[in-house]
């Protein structure tokens, strides 16, 4: 499976050409496995700090859970909905 599921992310994602699979060797300071929110952010942070990361993703950026995220606010399990609504609208 290479297409995103029918989600808000898939509907609004900036379409880019498919990235080719890694063939042969590549040199990097660090390898980040997984192109979800955390992996992409880690690779970006490393690059901005002068490192040379390589980001490996098996399918597509945001393919797994990150592409299905509904944007929930998890403000601790002890918060009632009225507290969250008052704080965030």
Explain the overall architecture.
The chain is built from three helices and two strands. It has a two-stranded parallel ribbon with strand order 1-2. The chain has one domain (8-88). The protein has helices spanning 8-12, 37-48, 81-88; strands at 30-33, 53-56. The chain is α+β, with helices and mostly antiparallel strands.
Present the secondary structure layout.
Blueprint: H1 8-12, E1 30-33, H2 37-48, E2 53-56, H3 81-88
Parallel strand pairs: 1-2
Query: Structural class, judged by helices and strands?
Result: alpha+beta
Number of helices: 3
Biggest pleated-sheet summary: 2 strands, parallel
Distance between the termini: 38 Å
Anisotropy-based shape: extended
Helix content: 25-40%
Total tally of structural domains: 1
The strand line-up of the biggest sheet is 1-2
**Percent of residues in β-strands:** 5-15%
Q: What does the radius of gyration come to?
A: 17 Å
Mean pLDDT across the residues is: 81
Poorly predicted runs of 5 or more residues? none
- Number of DSSP strand runs: 2
> Could you spell the SSE succession in H and E letters?
HEHEH
Key features?
89 residues; alpha+beta; 28% helix; two-stranded parallel ribbon; extended; single chain
Concise description?
The protein has 89 residues and is of the alpha+beta class. It is built from 3 helices and 2 strands, in the order αβαβα.
């Amino acid at each position: 499976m290479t297409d995103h599921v029918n989600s808000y992310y898939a509907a609004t994602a900036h379409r880019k050409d498919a990235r080719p699979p890694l063939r042969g060797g590549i040199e990097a300071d660090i390898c980040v496995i997984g192109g979800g929110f955390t992996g992409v952010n880690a690779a970006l942070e490393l690059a901005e700090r002068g490192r040379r990361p390589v980001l490996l993703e098996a399918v597509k950026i945001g393919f797994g859970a990150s592409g299905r995220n509904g944007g929930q606010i998890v403000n601790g399990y002890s918060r009632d909905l009225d507290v969250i609504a008052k704080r965030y609208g």
